[in-house]
């Protein structure tokens, strides 16, 4: 059961963050289909950063010294770097869509084509193979283990401690924190109010003195930062610390989460947990032992993992189809704002 | 005395390409007065107020506040000067609450976090003071149009605006809401706020305003004290001019009823009231019937309901003896030609060529296709013929992309297409909008010959000249109902104006709103 | 003189120019990336960077390296033949996206339709034993099956858009991934996994396993050593058929009308909902055929565990269509161009230290530029600037007069549902919700 919860969180948390990225962009008025591409780019930059610092020897020192604080620090730094990379990459989208009033879906698709191409091109040249891997077992170095917290390796912990403190990543909790903070930002601050108004009725916002262009740039850049960071977290926790120019459709799944969650952070969090659960079951259903009694119930009911994998998309499509009336996409998303049409 | 005027707009001229929307207009607003701006469609009222609110910059003229010249480059400047505007189409965020809409752009915050308690108290105080009932926590999309307007008003009050502009405020209100609004406006004026309101409704103007400025075709006709004038005079100023176009036509010889409409009700997309409220009329072969009225009184919905572009709620429509109340557009087209109101939205496919547009209604006929393949030469020949006959000018003839044609020629193409079909009923909405005199003359003569060939013509026009000269029978529409039926030879333009503005209706004298 | 300036003002000329400019810029960006990498990487030199650029531009003609180590160029039947072969799915997915664009829809669901087509084709081609049924009949059945599967899969987002007014892009994204998972599931549960050859259980059998393959029709004599087959002729045929459909039939007229102006189409009595579904079904059929022909060739094998990533060829149809400005005949050429780039990329990998992904970068840049080249084209063609002379005055007078004719002069909050996007953008991609 601990395993189930941990695995679900591992899938759910990057999903949540990237879906929030989608929300920030769309709520400010720009459709962001490029979540997948930005994730890929952010993952690459983050892994590259770690690899470079590994080659520079900074790592080995810290690891040898058992200074796990520094190791976590490196990971957080990598998250920051990938966030910055994502924000910068998303400027391509913002510029095209806001300044040049380009078609937002084509622009997003272009970025989705660009990122894996660029990333794979560079990876091949850097590593002469199709994957860029952090040196050694770096992914597990970043984990928080009970030994770090003062327990001996053979100590048995209670259920909660075992689930949430042992063999987990700090990034999971950091992301959760970021999610909560940004959601509060979106709904409880002046900035958030103004941002959301630009995605609903930019003419109204403009007539009240709000700079719609600036708001949309900010929204899309935050979106890029979150997606980039989400990409790195994905690479670290799900892909075992490697970047290979692909995030297996995670970015699109995050879009589904955003739609299913009706562009609302609380619902999105719930949807992420649900979709994360499906992904987890699909990936490791034969080893999920629900109540520790040695019976792998999920494997026994014989539903193919493929079903669990397609379930999120299927239910999102059904939700799209049947709640189209009450679905609350930001009203002005996808429509470039033109001041002259005041 | 000059300082009596809180706002002066002096010799304002505002031009758009090819047209002078405001021509040397002077408007002076006294402190504490309710000043109405009256005029027909296209008179320039909204443009003038948009200049005041900073949405447009004038080519000439100055604006003064309290005697000092000011520059208003955008709505922020206007707000800073204490000028607020309630637009005809509200600028509200549907999914936000009423309170959020009011504070947006002027929020009180602490460290960036919204502090709504003070704002709430302030808004509530304002709401009580002026009797503007609103539900602060309801979402704007869920509240009535009347309440939405009150939210817009509170937005102005919250920003402590002293000069309040209302653009056709009563267009979307129920009679009770109109009364409340009038009372609210009087309350503002008593307090020393100054109000400008745009309207074409004489009843309301007479009821609530202190002075009226009348605009006509971009020029200021004059400013009068309301107490010194009456509806007749205002109507005259708004509309009165000699009929300019004389259409030569013989007597109409109406024959069988082609179109028979009974108790037609068409819902409105914009508010809960119906747009067409139980209209009945008929059109006979060989006559031109015109529906006159100020835009926005249900004419659009009436035509959409007749032609099938919108669904009707109830009532019957009979065309050539068949009930087409629920028929598809294609079925109706068999006996109906439609020259639509919006030539870019409905009338033409701008990216298609001229010939492709000219066969838009007929491409399925055996003349133009065989086995699903278009007969290009037949289409070309037809198109060339229509172009010649109706003098449709374009860059490259039949292959011209319609988008590049001038508006006038685009309209001629539509008229050519629809009239050539020789349908028993022709529905024409604003058929000569934007055309030069020659084209107008030609189209009028075409419509008359259609009529003389025994077709029925239902015309909707906002140009009284056209209405008077072209029609055999006039129906005036006001607020979704037919309020009068006239013979153009026996009625005056002024009289029509009264009916169009709701001041009079057949059966009883119009009550003040 | 007037003739010449007319030529430059013509819309087709501008579109072709815009496409050419996009290609050039894309190549330049690719070249710059190669140069930068060449300069910053310790193991690569400028010389190798220049070689890389030469290959990107002319790789299709590269015949390898000579004894001295420099690149040689000449007529290479292998390269040309492979180019034609790889152009088959590109042309067909390009047609799929192009016809959708022409009818106002963005078919980003081509990968999913491609996969469904592939699955149907492979199942039919490998399950009907050619001992019992002649191979050519099996081929035809498999081909038609692929087309039908694609059509059904395309109709789903079409129906959802037509009847429920849901953005077809979102619906297509969902159907893409549903398809990927369904196909994986179907093959996982089937007996078509390649257990006969060592290490190939991740792939489905080639169709030659059942004796089914697209005939070569002599093309292998023209281009010996390559993979080309009659599929290219079929692709060309489809391009011509689509061209005929769109420009010469009443159905094409209706489909285009719905895409260009749904309101006017309704006004004319055209059944817009039915047409949207039909357009997407045709687009889906084309994408399905792409997958079908690719795998019926008999020398390609399908990696069936496709739930993690969508086939790139599905998305590559987008630049093919955009560059061709959605013209079916032009799609032939842009499809072949993209395929040439593809082959050049292979050359890069095999002959230099660079790799084929640079061509994907170039393609991505081209798509990026297409997103707003439509807007730029509009600026150039004076969509905002006044036209000259009397015509302009008339034109302008009408525009504002028609505004003044309605009640408000200040354009009120434009209803998003009604707002027509900037002039030129409308034909290429119409109504989003």
Describe the structure.
The complex is a heterotrimer of chains A (342), B (513) and C (433). Chain A has 342 residues and is mainly α. Chain A contains 15 helices and four strands. Chain A has a single domain, classed as ABC transporter involved in vitamin B12 uptake, BtuC. Chain B is an alpha/beta fold and 513 residues long. Chain B has three domains: 2-239, 3-Layer(aba) Sandwich (Rossmann fold); 243-335 and 423-513, P-loop containing nucleotide triphosphate hydrolases (Rossmann fold, 3-Layer(aba) Sandwich); 347-422, no CATH class. In chain B, the strands form seven sheets. In chain B, strands 6-9-10-3-11-12 form a six-stranded mixed sheet, with helices on both faces. A six-stranded mixed sheet of chain B has the order 18-21-22-15-23-24, with helices on both faces. Chain B is globular, with a radius of gyration of 25 Å. Residues 508-513 of chain B have low confidence and may be disordered. Chain C has 433 residues and is mainly α. Chain C has a domain at 86-336: Orthogonal Bundle (ABC transporter involved in vitamin B12 uptake, BtuC). In chain C, 67% of the residues lie in helices and 2% in strands. The chains are: A mainly alpha (342), B alpha/beta (513), C mainly alpha (433).
């Amino acid at each position: 059961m601990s395993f189930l919860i941990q695995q679900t969180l591992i899938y759910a948390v990057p999903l949540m963050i990237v879906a929030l990225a989608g929300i920030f962009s769309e709520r400010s008025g720009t459709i962001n289909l490029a979540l997948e591409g930005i994730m890929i780019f952010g993952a690459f930059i983050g892994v590259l950063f770690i690899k470079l610092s590994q080659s520079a020897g900074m790592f080995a020192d810290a690891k040898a010294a058992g200074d796990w604080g520094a190791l976590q620090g490196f990971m957080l730094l990598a998250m920051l770097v990938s966030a910055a990379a994502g924000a910068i990459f998303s400027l391509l989208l913002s510029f095209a869509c806001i300044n040049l009033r380009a078609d937002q879906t084509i622009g997003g698709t272009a970025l989705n084509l660009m990122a894996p191409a660029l990333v794979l091109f560079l990876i091949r040249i850097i590593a002469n193979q199709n994957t860029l891997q952090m040196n050694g077992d770096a992914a597990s170095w970043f984990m928080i283990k009970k030994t770090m917290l003062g327990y001996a390796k053979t100590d048995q912990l209670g259920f909660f401690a075992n689930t949430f403190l042992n063999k987990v990543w700090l990034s999971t909790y950091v992301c959760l924190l970021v999610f909560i903070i940004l959601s509060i930002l979106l709904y409880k601050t002046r900035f958030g109010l103004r941002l959301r108004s630009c995605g609903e009725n930019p003419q109204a916002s403009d007539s009240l003195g709000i700079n719609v262009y600036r708001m949309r740039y900010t929204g899309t850049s935050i979106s890029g930062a979150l997606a980039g960071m989400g990409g790195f977290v994905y690479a670290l926790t799900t892909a075992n610390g490697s970047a290979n120019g692909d995030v297996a459709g995670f970015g699109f799944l995050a879009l589904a989460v955003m739609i299913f969650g009706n562009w609302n952070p609380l619902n999105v969090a719930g949807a992420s947990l649900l979709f994360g659960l499906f992904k987890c079951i699909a990936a490791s259903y034969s080893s999920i032992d629900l109540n520790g009694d040695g019976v792998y119930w999920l494997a026994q009911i014989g539903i193919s993992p493929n079903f669990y994998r397609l379930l999120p998309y299927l239910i999102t499509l059904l939700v799209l189809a049947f709640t189209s009336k009450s679905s609350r996409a930001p009203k002005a998303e996808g429509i470039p704002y033109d001041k002259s049409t005041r | 005395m000059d300082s009596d005027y809180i706002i002066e707009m002096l010799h304002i001229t505002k031009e758009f390409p090819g047209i002078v929307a405001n021509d040397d207009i002077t408007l002076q607003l006294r402190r504490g007065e309710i000043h109405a701006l009256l005029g027909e469609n296209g008179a320039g009222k909204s443009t003038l107020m948009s200049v005041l609110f900073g949405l447009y910059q004038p080519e000439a003229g100055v604006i003064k506040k309290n005697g000092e010249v000011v520059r208003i480059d955008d709505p922020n400047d206007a707000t800073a000067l204490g000028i607020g505007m309630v637009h005809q189409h509200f600028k509200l965020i549907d999914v936000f609450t009423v309170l959020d809409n009011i504070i947006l752009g002027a929020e009180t915050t602490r460290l960036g976090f919204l502090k709504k308690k003070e704002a709430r108290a302030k808004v509530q105080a304002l709401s009580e003071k002026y009797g503007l009932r609103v539900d602060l926590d309801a979402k704007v999309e869920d509240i009535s149009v009347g309440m939405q307007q009150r939210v817009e008003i509170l937005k102005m009050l919250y920003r402590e605006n002293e000069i309040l502009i209302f653009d056709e405020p009563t267009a979307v209100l129920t009679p009770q809401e109109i009364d409340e609004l009038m009372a609210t406006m009087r309350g503002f004026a008593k307090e020393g706020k100054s109000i400008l309101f745009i309207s074409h409704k004489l009843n309301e103007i007479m009821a609530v305003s202190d002075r009226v400025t009348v605009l006509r075709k971009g020029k200021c006709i004059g400013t009068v004290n309301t107490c010194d004038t009456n509806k007749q005079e205002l109507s005259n100023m708004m509309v009165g001019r000699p009929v300019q176009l004389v259409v030569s036509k013989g007597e109409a010889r109406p024959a069988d009823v082609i179109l028979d409409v009974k108790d037609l009700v068409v819902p409105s997309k914009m508010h809960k009231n119906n747009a067409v409220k139980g209209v009945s009329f008929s059109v006979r072969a060989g006559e031109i019937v015109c529906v006159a009225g100020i835009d926005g009184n249900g004419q659009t919905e009436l035509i959409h309901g007749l032609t099938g572009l919108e669904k009707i709620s109830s009532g019957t429509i009979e065309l050539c003896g068949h009930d087409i109340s629920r028929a598809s557009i294609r079925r109706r087209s068999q006996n109906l030609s439609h020259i639509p109101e919006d030539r870019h939205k409905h009338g033409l496919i701008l990216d298609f060529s001229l010939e492709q547009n000219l066969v838009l209604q007929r491409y399925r006929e055996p003349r133009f296709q065989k086995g699903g393949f278009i007969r290009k030469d037949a289409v070309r020949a037809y198109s060339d013929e229509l172009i010649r006959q109706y003098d449709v000018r374009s860059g490259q003839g039949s292959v011209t992309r319609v988008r590049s044609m001038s508006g006038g020629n685009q309209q001629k193409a539509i008229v050519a297409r629809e009239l050539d079909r020789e349908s028993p009923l022709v529905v024409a909405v604003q058929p000569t909008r934007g055309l030069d005199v020659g084209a107008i003359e030609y189209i009028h003569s075409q419509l008359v010959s259609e009529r003389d060939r025994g077709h029925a013509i239902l015309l909707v026009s906002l140009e009284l000249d056209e209405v008077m000269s072209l029609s055999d029978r006039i129906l005036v529409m006001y607020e979704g109902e037919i309020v009068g039926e006239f013979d153009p030879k026996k009625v005056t333009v002024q009289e029509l104006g009264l009916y169009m503005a709701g001041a009079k209706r057949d059966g009883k004298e119009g009550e003040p709103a | 003189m007037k003739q010449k300036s007319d030529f430059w003002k013509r819309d087709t000329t501008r579109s072709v120019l815009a496409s050419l400019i996009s290609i050039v810029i894309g190549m330049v960006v690719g070249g710059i990336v190669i140069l930068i990498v060449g300069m910053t990487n310790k193991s690569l030199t400028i010389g190798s960077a220049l070689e890389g650029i030469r290959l990107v531009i002319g790789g299709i003609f590269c015949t390898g390296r000579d004894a001295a180590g420099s690149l040689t160029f000449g007529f290479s039947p292998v390269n040309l033949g492979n180019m034609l072969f790889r152009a088959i799915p590109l042309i067909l997915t390009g047609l799929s996206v192009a016809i959708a664009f022409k009818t106002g829809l963005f078919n980003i669901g081509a990968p999913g339709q491609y996969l469904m087509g592939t699955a149907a084709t492979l199942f039919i081609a490998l399950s009907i034993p050619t001992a019992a049924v002649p191979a050519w009949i099996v081929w035809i059945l498999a081909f038609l099956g692929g087309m039908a599967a694609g059509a059904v899969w395309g109709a789903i987002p079409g129906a959802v858009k037509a009847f429920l007014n849901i953005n077809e892009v979102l619906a297509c994204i969902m159907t893409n991934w549903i398809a990927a998972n369904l196909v994986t599931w179907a093959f996982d549960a089937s007996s078509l996994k390649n257990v006969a050859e060592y290490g190939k259980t991740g792939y489905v059998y080639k169709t030659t396993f059942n004796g089914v393959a697209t005939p070569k029709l002599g093309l292998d004599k023209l281009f010996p050593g390559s993979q080309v087959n009659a599929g290219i002729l079929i692709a060309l045929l489809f391009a011509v058929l689509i061209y005929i459909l769109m420009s010469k039939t009443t159905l094409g007229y209706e489909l285009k009308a719905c895409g260009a102006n749904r309101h006017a189409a309704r006004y004319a009595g055209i059944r817009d909902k039915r047409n949207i579904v039909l357009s997407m079904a045709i687009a889906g059929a084309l994408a399905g055929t792409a997958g079908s022909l690719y795998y019926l060739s008999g020398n390609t094998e399908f990696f069936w565990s496709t739930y993690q990533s969508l086939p790139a060829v599905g998305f590559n149809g987008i630049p093919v269509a955009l560059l061709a400005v959605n013209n079916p005949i032009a799609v032939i050429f842009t499809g072949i161009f993209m395929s040439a780039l593809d082959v050049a990329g292979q050359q890069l990998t095999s002959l230099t230290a660079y790799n084929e992904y640079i061509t994907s970068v170039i393609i991505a840049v081209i798509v990026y530029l297409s997103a707003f080249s439509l807007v730029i084209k509009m600026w150039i063609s004076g969509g905002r600037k006044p036209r000259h002379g009397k015509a302009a005055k008339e034109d302008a007078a009408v525009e504002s007069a028609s505004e003044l004719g309605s009640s408000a002069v200040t354009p009120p909050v434009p209803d998003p549902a009604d707002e027509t996007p900037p002039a030129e953008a409308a034909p290429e991609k119409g109504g989003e919700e």
